Amino acid sequence: MLLDQQWKKVLNRLENELTAVNYDLWVSSLSPIQYANDELILMAPSVTAKNQVNQVNIFEKLTRAVRAEFTPYTFVRVTDRDEYEESLRHQDEEFEKTVKENSNLKSKFNKKYTFENFVVGKSNQVVCAAMHSVAENPGKKFNPLFIYGGVGLGKTHLLHAVGNYLNEHRPELNVMYVSCEKFINDYVESVKNVKSANTSDFRDKYRNVDVLMVDDIQFISNKMSTQEEFFNTYNELYQNNKQIIIASDRPPKEMSALEERLRSRFSSGLVQDIQMPDYETKVAILKMKCAEEGFLIDNDVLDFIALKDCDSIRDLEGILSKVTFYASLLGKNSTSLEDAREALKDYGESEKTNVDADKIINVVCDFFKVNKEDLVGSKRNKEFVEPRQMCIYLINDMLNMPLTAIGSIFGGRDHTTIMHARDKINEQLKTNPHTKVLVNDIKSRISKA
Known about the structure:
Layout: H1 2-15, H2 20-27, E1 31-36, E2 39-44, H3 47-53, H4 56-69, E3 75-80, H5 81-105, H6 125-136, E4 145-148, H7 155-169, E5 175-179, H8 180-190, H9 198-207, E6 211-215, H10 224-239, E7 243-248, H11 260-266, E8 270-273, H12 279-293, H13 299-306, H14 313-329, H15 337-343, H16 357-368, H17 372-376, H18 382-399, H19 403-409, H20 415-431, H21 433-448
Parallel strand pairs: 2-3, 4-7, 4-8, 5-6, 6-7
Antiparallel strand pairs: 1-2
Helix pairs in contact: 1-4, 2-3, 6-7, 8-9, 12-13, 12-14, 16-18, 18-20, 19-20, 20-21
């Protein structure tokens, strides 16, 4: 509608500048069909009309009138129907060619790793949202996106989820996923013989992509020449609005052997951590794994496994596999709590096994100089509220105890009250360095108690 209105204004100008014959026969019959990127495409009813309009005496006046109503930089193109349809066919062919070429260059992504089967909880919801946003609009925001966290917490799953999403929804894009080790090996191979074309091939491979995802970037530390090449690759992609996603086991500021200019660039976008899932998320992960593998397990068994102390989701899934394998050895189709206890009787025998809620409560009471009765009781004085919130957080964090169970320890408090106390400390850990020091200090005392 707006294009038609602007075109009418152009015609009003030209009606007074052209002869009646040129205006009536050739110009008034033009139709505006597209205006994009400062280019106006006009459709002529015939090849003869197109050729007439493209004559200098008409075209110059047409261009001036168009630029007066659109922008001073508008380029005018006059075409006929056959020529326009041929150009559209050519665009389609070029698009299909690009998709085909890119499909040969694309990284192979694990089809099991998608956004749909990634279990979202408090520990990873921000990272997951950021990755999904980048997949929907690569290069538009959160560039670079730097995610970090321990082994087996879902970083690689999310990287493959981005790749699978883009391959489905944006097949024309060249999306590359590579481990840091692969990047290093490719670079070393490219410089073995400086007289060969390997270096050029290496740069073409990594700089002609639309999305570059690098896993385990921490391994680039201390490798100065590789850092130099990655720095140049990063700059080339970033300046061309290509999406960069980097995964690591630690944040940029803790990568001491990394050049400052790279550390600065990694920190310039969104830096977000992914943490060990809480109890509720662990249960959800176990249920999804059971559904995928066809395991028949009672809910109380899943609760029992979720309460086990483990360092990663892989460990959690390993515990589940151990339990189900034990049941299969007994010839059972489903797994009971008794089977799970027997299968895991030797699991987790470490210094952490002697940590329980009572020990945490006693250490917190000693640290804050308060009585246990006041800590778990109903008093709302400030001197008891902070220690109580800290105690609730530590029990949930160190033992993965269900919120309802924690509530029963603290005078039968509702699980929402327990959740509020836990989240209060979580928020303080993100913004208050003093809280982080406090938590680490108390945890150290608990481990030594």
